[in-house]
Amino acid sequence: MDQYGSRFIQQKYDVTSEEEKDLIFEEILPQANSLMNDVFGNYVVQKLFEYGTDPQRATLADQLLGSVLKLTKSMYGCRVVQKALEFISLDQKKLLI
Hints:
Elements lengths: L2 H11 L4 H11 L3 H5 L4 H11 L2 H11 L3 H5 L4 H11 L2 H7 L1
């Protein structure tokens, strides 16, 4: 939820190993709901949807269940929902919608 921390994670995520990406994901997951609607945190969650593994995307999409309407009404949350719909499976899209 910090501008510089968010940028740091976004930049490092592109050049880290798969093991490091897993560690980043595990650290961020408990805070994912808060980050989705945050001015800086939403970018990190978008990055996870874009570059995460399919199981990670599925886990993040599960975090969206029950929150889609609220997020779509938010300036930052709507971006996360849009990014999720780009990268999650068709079955998960149906669940969210």
